């Protein structure tokens, strides 16, 4: 692998940047690792970068070398509160592409006001684990096609991934579903990816939207969590998704933090 030398303010020795593997770079000073860079490719094809270093000069040089080695566009995600890290990426030529709010969502229906949320006429809620895999896969594929034709899956939270071609088999244990006349109309995905259950996706087929189905699905899963003794869930919402932000703001969810997705074109 190729190496690049430069002198930084980390000490007396030159720092050597080396691409040690296809997706990994190391910054070495006197045979000691003082910085690491890594790339990962999302299933939607986009390439994301991460850099870990103690010194700004090392970060800048790692970014410079990685950018020279890789095809654009390139992406990264930062905690918006981390001003220093955000500044490093901006010095490397990255700009803000979107903001994603991290919500803390109460489950108590007395707080959310969802205890009296009606299920639309003719619609039933199928609890997590009870959905039939075949119809659930069909709904998953139809919703993905609709989203891809509209805003695209690059606008979805990182954990809501595009599936490899031909793979449309979501885990029924993670999904509650709205159904009517033998067909599935909408779904909500709840997973335990942190210490809090995460509402990863709420989606309703385009022709069935504005009927209160998403609100009924949310009422169902939050009510189930509350009855299990869980007081708070989490959710990530794209700032530009006005319907989703209105839904969560309207039930007393609190914006706890935000992430920025940055791009270098």
UniProtKB/TrEMBL annotation:
It comes from the Bacteria. Gene3D superfamilies: 3.40.630.30. Residues 141-265 form the N-acetyltransferase domain. Pfam families: Acetyltransf_10. This is GNAT family N-acetyltransferase. The lineage of its organism: Bacteria, Bacillati, Actinomycetota, Actinomycetes, Pseudonocardiales.
């Amino acid at each position: 692998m190729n190496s690049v030398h430069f002198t930084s303010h980390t000490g007396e020795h030159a720092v050597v940047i080396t691409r040690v593997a296809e997706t990994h770079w190391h910054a070495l000073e006197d045979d000691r690792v003082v910085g690491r860079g890594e790339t990962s490719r999302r299933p939607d094809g986009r390439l994301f970068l991460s850099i870990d270093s103690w010194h700004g000069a090392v970060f800048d040089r790692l970014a410079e070398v990685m950018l020279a080695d890789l095809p654009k566009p390139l992406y990264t995600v930062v905690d918006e509160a981390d001003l220093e890290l955000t500044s490093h990426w901006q010095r490397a030529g990255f700009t803000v592409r979107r903001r994603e709010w991290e919500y803390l969502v109460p489950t108590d229906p007395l707080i959310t006001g969802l205890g009296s949320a009606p299920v639309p006429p003719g619609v039933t809620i199928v609890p997590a684990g009870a959905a039939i895999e075949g119809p659930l896969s069909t709904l998953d594929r139809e919703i993905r096609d609709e989203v891809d034709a509209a805003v695209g899956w690059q606008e979805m939270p990182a954990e809501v991934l595009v599936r490899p071609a031909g793979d449309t088999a979501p885990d029924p244990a993670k999904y509650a579903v709205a159904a009517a006349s033998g067909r599935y109309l909408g779904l909500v995905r709840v997973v335990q990816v942190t210490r809090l259950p995460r509402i990863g996706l709420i989606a309703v087929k385009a022709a069935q939207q504005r009927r209160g189905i998403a609100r009924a699905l949310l009422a169902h899963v939050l009510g189930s969590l509350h009855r299990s003794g869980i007081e708070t869930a989490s959710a990530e919402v794209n700032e530009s998704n006005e319907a989703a932000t209105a839904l969560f703001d309207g039930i007393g969810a609190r914006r706890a933090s935000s992430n920025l997705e940055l791009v270098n074109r």
